[in-house]
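Hey,
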Amino acid sequence: MAGCGSPCGACKFLRRKCVTGCIFAPHFCYEEGDVDFSAIHKVFGASNVSRLLVHLPLSDRCKAAMSISYEAQARIQDPIYGCVSHIFALQQQVVNLQAQLAFLKDQAAQSFVNGSNPNQAAQSWNYENGIMNSNIPEENLVNIPEENVSYGSFEEGTSHSMSSFGMQTNYNMQWGFQDADELQSVVSSYIHHR
C-alpha cells in the first residue's frame, strides 16, 4: 500500500486495489508512478515484472525497478535499439573528449617547450550551439553527424532522448556496429592507437 490510502502507481494504472505487501508499492508510490509503470507494462508486462521483482532480494529490487523503468522508456522511444543507442552515443562522446584532451595536452606541452603562454591554447576553443569545438585534426575524431546530436530531456515526447544525461540522439541513425563488443573493440583500438 502506498500510504494515506492511495494506491501505488502500478495499481492505479492497473485499476486495482493496492494491498498491503504489493510488490510494486515501494517502487511506484510517487505522483507520476502510474505514468512510469504504463511504459513498463507496455514493454514487459506487469506479471513478468512482478515475477522478476519477487525473485530478487529486497536490497536489489529498487535498483531493478529503476533499471526496468529506464529500459522501458528507452524501448518506447526507440523500439529497435532501446538504451543501447544512448550507450553508443555516450561511448562516442567519450572517444571525442579523449581526443580533445590529448590534443590539448599536446598543445600545452608544445607551448611549454616553446615558452609561449599556455592560456592562449585555451582561447582557441570556441562554443557553437553549446557544443565545444576545436582545431583537432579530423583523423583524431570519430564523428557523430551534427544533425544527430542535440540536447533535451526524455520527457519532451517526440524527441528521442534520455533525461538523466540531458542528451538527445536521433535513434533512426544507422550505427556501423553490430553489437556493443564490436563498438568496444573499435574504441579500444582507437585509444591504444594514439
